[in-house]
Specification:
Layout: H1 3-36, H2 43-52, H3 59-68, H4 105-108
């Protein structure tokens, strides 16, 4: 291993430690905001709350940290269309009118 690589790695150790501490502080803030919303807020709202608090953070970083520490908001239920007919309900008119008609008596004797 080159000597310069060893010393570069050693010098970067303190920067990694500082970044790790900063990440832990940010995760603590995210957890406080998430608990304050009773677990409802997801990454977009957490990011907005951090911005309102004066914390300039990239939204992708908030998403990544929430995924990493398994902080999950409540997802809304999917809406059901109430005006559409059920699958087994009323039959639609066929594209070709004679397609679904039972055979006539004349055609059956041929």
């Amino acid at each position: 291993m080159p000597r310069s690589t060893y010393y570069a790695h050693r010098a970067a150790e303190s920067a990694r430690r500082v970044a790790r501490r900063e990440e832990e502080r940010l995760v603590d803030e995210i957890r406080v905001l998430h608990a304050g919303s009773r677990g409802a807020y997801g990454a977009p709202r957490i990011h907005a709350a951090l911005r309102r608090a004066g914390r300039a953070v990239n939204p992708k970083r908030v998403e990544r940290l929430m995924r990493k520490y398994r902080i999950v908001g409540i997802t809304r239920r999917r809406r059901r269309g109430l005006t559409r007919q059920a699958a087994g309900g009323v039959h639609r008119r066929p594209d070709r009118p004679g397609l679904h008609r039972p055979p006539s008596r004349d055609a059956a004797g041929r």
